[in-house]
Amino acid sequence: MKLGLYRYDLPFIKPIPNIGENANIRSGLIIRRYDGWGEICPLPRHSLETIEEAQAEALTYLQALNRGEKYEPRLPSVQFGVDCMNEHLSYDITLKYESKGV
After folding, report:
1. Where are the domains of the chain?
2. Alpha-carbon distance 60 to 75, whole Å?
3. Residue 98: CB partners within 8 Å, gap ≥ 6?
4. 20 to 30 A Cα–Cα from 68, which one of 41, 46, 97, 98?
5. Tell me: the pLDDT tens digits for 31-71?
C-alpha cells in the first residue's frame, strides 16, 4: 500500500499578526494514500491542535491503515486531510470536450 506523510514549513512573505508572535512560517502536512492527497494544516491560535499533535494522529491513522485496521481521526485538521485524501481529489484541470465540427 502506497502511504505517505510529508511535513512542510513555508515562510510567509509578511507575518500574519493574528496567529501569534513571530509567526513567520506556515507548517503543515501532506497525507497520501495511493493517488489521493490531503492537507493537514492547523492554524496556531485558531485550531484546537498543534502541528505536532496532528502529525502524531496522522501517523497513527496511517499505521492502522497499513495493518488493515480502521481508525477514525479525532482532530479536526486530521479529519479534513483524511477526508480530502479519501475523496481522491483531483487537480486535473484539463479541458475535456467533444468537437462539434465547424
Report:
1. 3-86
2. 12
3. none
4. 41
5. 998 888 999 999 877 888 999 999 999 999 999 999 999 99
Higher per-residue confidence, 13 vs 69: 69
Q: 51-66 and 76-86 are packed helices; what angle lies between their axes, rounded to 10 degrees?
A: 40
Cα gap 15→34, rounded to integer Å: 35
- CA 54 – CA 8 distance, rounded (Å): 13
C-alpha cell at 35: 493517488
Distance CA 58, CA 38 (A): 11
Domain 3-86: homologous superfamily in CATH:
Enolase-like, N-terminal domain (3.30.390.10)
**3 in Cβ contact with 66 (< 8 Å):** yes
